[in-house]
Amino acid sequence: MNSSSLAARIKKNKRKVLILSSFLTGLAFVGITAGISFTFKYNGKHPREEVQQFVKKVKYVAFNPEKISENSDFLAIKSLLFDGNTLKNTIKLDDYLIPYYFSEDSKQLVKFAQQNQKTSSPVFDFVDLNFDDLNQNFIIKFRARQQITDQKIAYSDFVLSPVSFYDSRKFLKADFNFALQKITEKIEEAVSNFNTVVSNFSEENSDLTKNHLYRALDFAAKINSSQNSSEVEQNLAQIFPNFTDLISSIRNSKENLIPDKNERIFDINFAKDAATNQFVSVQNNIATMFLQANFTQAALDQLGDNFEINGNKIININLESKDKKSIFLDVNEFFANLKLKPLIYNTEEKDTKLVISKQNPFDFFAKIKSESNPFLKNSTIKDLINPLLAENLSLDFANLNKLIPSDKQGIDFIFDTPNAKLVNDNGKYVVELPYKIVLYESFFDNNSNEIINQKDLILRIEGFGLPINSNLASSAFGNFLIPGTQKGIIYQQDPLFDNKSANLSQFISTFGEPVFAKVPLNKEELDNLILKRDYKALADKLSLPSSYNYNFDNFEAKVKSWSGKTSIPNLDDISRFKNLQTTTSINSSNSSQNLAVSSLVSNTFFQNPSDVATFFANYIQQEPNKIAKTFFELAKSFGLLNQNRSSLQIFDDDLQEDIFKKAAKINLDNKKNIQILSFNNHFEDVFNQGFFSTLFLPQSIKTKIGDLKNKSASEVLAALKDQEIFEESNTNFDLNQIKENYKQSVKFSTLADVLLAFYLKSVQLSNFLAWEKIDSNLHYEIVFRKGNEISKQTLDQEISKIAEQPKPEQQSEEQTQQSVQSEQAQPSQPSQQSEQPVETPQNLTNSNNYEYLTLNFYYNIGDERTNKFSLQTPVRKILINLSTEKIDPKVSNEEKLNSLADTIPSELLNFEVNDETFNKISQAQNSTTGQGANQNSQTSSLETNLNNLNNIKNYFSKSLDNTQLKFDIFPSFENSIKTDTINFLLTVSILDKNSQAQTSGQNNINQAEVLASRSLKISVKKSINSQSSNTNQQTN
Known about the structure:
Blueprint: H1 3-12, H2 49-56, E1 60-63, H3 74-81, E2 82-83, E3 86-87, H4 93-96, E4 97-102, E5 109-111, E6 123-132, E7 137-147, E8 153-155, E9 159-163, H5 168-192, E10 198-199, E11 212-213, H6 216-223, H7 229-239, H8 241-251, E12 257-258, E13 263-264, E14 266-271, E15 280-283, E16 286-295, H9 297-303, E17 313-319, H10 331-336, E18 339-340, H11 361-370, H12 378-385, E19 395-396, E20 411-415, E21 421-425, E22 428-440, E23 451-461, H13 485-492, H14 502-511, E24 513-515, E25 521-522, H15 523-531, H16 535-543, H17 553-562, H18 571-575, E26 578-584, E27 595-601, H19 609-620, H20 624-637, H21 659-663, E28 676-679, E29 695-696, H22 699-705, H23 713-720, E30 726-727, E31 730-731, H24 735-743, H25 751-764, E32 778-790, H26 792-801, H27 808-814, E33 820-822, E34 850-863, E35 868-872, E36 876-883, H28 889-903, H29 906-909, E37 910-913, H30 915-926, H31 932-945, H32 947-959, E38 964-971, E39 981-991, H33 993-997, H34 1004-1007, E40 1010-1022, H35 1024-1029
Parallel strand pairs: 24-36, 25-36, 27-28, 37-40
Antiparallel strand pairs: 1-4, 2-3, 4-5, 6-7, 7-8, 7-9, 10-11, 12-13, 14-16, 15-16, 16-17, 18-19, 20-22, 21-22, 22-23, 26-27, 26-33, 28-29, 30-31, 32-34, 34-35, 34-36, 38-39, 39-40
Helix pairs in contact: 5-8, 7-8, 17-19, 30-31, 31-32
């Protein structure tokens, strides 16, 4: 072929020579491999398999239009690349050659992306380029290569492929496809780097919508409200301005420009999904938007009219991060990680800030619990905690902390103070304060208070100091903590309102409260009990009615409440209590001032007023509507409401502030004009421990509050706030004022009056904080420590210093004398709390056989799981007399009686009788009064019908030979709720023969001095055979 014909051929086919213009210069993205991106992982396949497949994908290889001009022909290219028959040394084939492949999805021709030699993906090695003068084309030899390890490389087989010279528009379309692919990748890459969509939290732009986080569904709802693509962009600019900026930049990017012409390849606009007809679809919290890419007219002109155009391109843009998570808020994940920020404690005292190491954990816990009233705002608890912190309490939004304002509406944390705990964590006390985080729909600016999610967490407040019990600092008692100032104050309040003279108070402070017995302990016996640490036995002896008759229960009942050991009845239990309605006199000279009392009596519950206070302490922390329902039921038990009335329709579950308004509309059936509500006749001790459990409503308080029909609960509590009695170590009221309030007790007319009396008591006693449980896993023990021994001479001298007692008329002013007059046919049961009168010191210092000892006692409290004690009550002092005789016959009798009672055979106390005998004793026990001649006749009647009673008497008489015994029997209150069992209390007493001999008349046994006594419970059960054969004859 001559040179002229060759030139003509080249000229004819010059449009068929592959010439790609320089507009492709900016299409490649370094570090991004489009179309295929393989990472080698050995999984049992041959190492070369991947590179073999990779090299087979190549359909065409063409010259790079950036290196070879559009008008270059075969000879020009040959001259450019070759020096004779040899490829020039300066030519790097990677720069001059571009491979193409068919995409798997659209079957469109696309070029391979620029190769990155540093990746582990396969790359091409262009090994050799040759030319064919005859056919006027070029042949490329190449293979694929992949770095498997640092030392190993996999190579494919060599491939020979011609470099095409025809139909340049075919490759131009491929380049356009590649440009669209790069645009798509650029959008996806940019979107994956977006943070969670938060609009306008850190920007000041009035054109943007109100600050809030977006969920995928919120975003879809907003965008899908658009009518067209233009409106989509307007709405998108308000929510997601970064996205609109991205699309705008893509439209004008170099990837979307035709080279040299500076015109766009594609028109890119938002489109609706063909399947859903929505601009945004959401699946698994991933929002997908749709972009439609149409060739511009300029691009179509480049492709030519005779080139087949395959419609419009739809690009699916998943709004997700690189780890395939939604860029919108995942509510479940967001809420799962939500909590309060870690506490950073203040380290120095300044302004209103406190140092936690200087705070008593029990007092701080007490403040938390005192704010347990449901009416108080959550901010009150925050105000207690924030002074301890360098940074105030706030929610921790994790990586969104900088984006979400601290005052963001629609989310809140609420403390559950009633369930707060004080925990001993390896000797350090930690307050565990439960709180609830609540997320509302309004958090997402939807103007709705619907709760989306809520969860319960616990805030641990730790680092408190460990203050030493000041009472013990200089003693050998130990370095235990007193469980809080408030508990310590109430524990010490016995008597509740101290009205002693200064000298007597000084005497008690120095030597202890005088507690003398006619039959005192032997000194040697007391020493032995203390030496053996048998403190319980010592407490039992000191509390015996026949001995010192000291009431430890006023102290132990409080300790029980702290350790969660108080037996608390439910409302069903209380409904079975016996109701006694009576009157009490507040002035013996004026019966018209008597107060009407309703008292609920139980042998099982509420034996001490502090037991009732513990019951109240549990309820004061409940929701107000539950408290109202509780006192509705209590009013029925007190006989103030008909038993058939129900509170279910009155106090709805959502009722809080209006309980007084509702309760004021419930009139009581108070025909007896009841003014005092009490348990187990605690009202008889109302100016001492009974004050804790007795409810009454003074006229002055009722007048101050006004009409309860118009009062919210918060208003009522605010008006009562100044009624608190025990604050630190002072009291706001004296005894005379309490007495005056008691005298002014009004008749309970509505349920609101009863509620007001309860809330008044609650405020007076600081929300019953002194009885608040510390922990259910506590146990306690009483401990005694000997103090100084006091001689009779010293005691006489100290007694002489005590001021004279008030005159009788003065004494009547100081002490209210109460008398109970029954309004029912049957009398009330004798009080379980009654004590023998305590002798004055002057009456018991004339014995030469007595010594006097200050005896200290307190309670240790600790974790029953570890059996370690860490708390201690304040120390109490009592001054006791001791017998110095080596062998005290009185003490000996008591020990013998107790020993016999402890070892009595159970069959003597628990036995069955036939139906006839059971009916006889049932009728007899109903008439028992336990008084005088009636009691004697009753005992005789029971002896006739119960052989075991004689056997019991013989058991004691035989063992206690040559002693005078007395047996008293009483029916038990339990008989009112049982039909197949009758219980009796049998008291065995040893009498003083000498005192009996000095008396005369038929009642000389009753008048004899009791040296020792012990009560036993006898249980008589109807035999099973008798019950089955006489079922229809039983009486209830």
